[in-house]
Amino acid sequence: MSILMTENLCKTYGAGETRVQALQNVNLQVEEGEFVAVVGTSGSGKSTLLHMLGGLDNPTGGKVKIEGKDIFALKKDELTIFRRRKIGFVFQSYNLVPVLNVYDNILLPIELDGNQVDEEYIHNVIQMLGLGEKLERFPSQLSGGQQQRVAIARALAAKPSIVLADEPTGNLDSRTSQDVMSLIRITSERLGQTIIMITHNEEIAGMASRIIRIEDGQIVSGSSPRTKAGELHA
Questions:
Q1: Which comes out higher in pLDDT, residue 108 or 227?
Q2: Looking at residue 127, which CATH number applies to its domain?
Q3: Backbone angles phi, psi at 119, to 5 degrees
Q4: Which of 46, 114, 134, 145 yields a CA-CA distance of 20 to 30 A from 40?
Q5: Owning domain of residue 145
Q6: DSSP state of 226
Q7: Is residue 175 a part of any domain in this protein?
Q8: Beta-carbon neighbour count of residue 128 at 10 Å?
Q9: What is the DSSP string of 13-26?
Q10: Is residue 3 part of a domain?
Q11: Above 50 in pLDDT, residue 231?
Q12: How many domains does the chain have?
């Protein structure tokens, strides 16, 4: 089942001679439980695409549907709530709250929404990401790789429909990057979590189950899920 779809998604910045077509009629679909990497060079439109998928910026035209809901048809407050409940974010710069310890950072999305914490699920996520002995520490007391693990746990905490990862290994050395990517793949496999990750790193992208390539604001390959035989849908 397609959990995310875009229909003729467009984004234009500026006007006249300064006009930039960041996205041009992007159509893609992502199946539930997929781990998808979106690959492109700087300026290709991959970051703009991720911002559109996460409802962080409005498109010039087209639609983004998550679980069949057109997110840009929602009112501003409705979109904020939908994003908090349905979309988890992992950023290159971690974006942890420095005055909160690891455990409180992980629970933050749930507490903002006023929901009950699923203690067993959170415990499983913490153990899976190897954070059991770090719960009382603050972000400043953690390495970059450990901070990114916390960010992944926070993204998973509210059981989102999709997790969007923006260059999640961009600030990490190569060895730590491999460790973090292995954990991202494990969470996708064990939890059946849908993950969409943007990266410029081909080696990192190769750890995903599908690669989408974007150039000059257009998807050039991989827009449709693979069939069981490994072929792309027509």
A1: 108
A2: 3.40.50.300
A3: -60, -40
A4: 145
A5: 31-58+85-221
A6: B
A7: yes
A8: 18
A9: ES-GGG-EEEEEEE
A10: no
A11: no
A12: 1
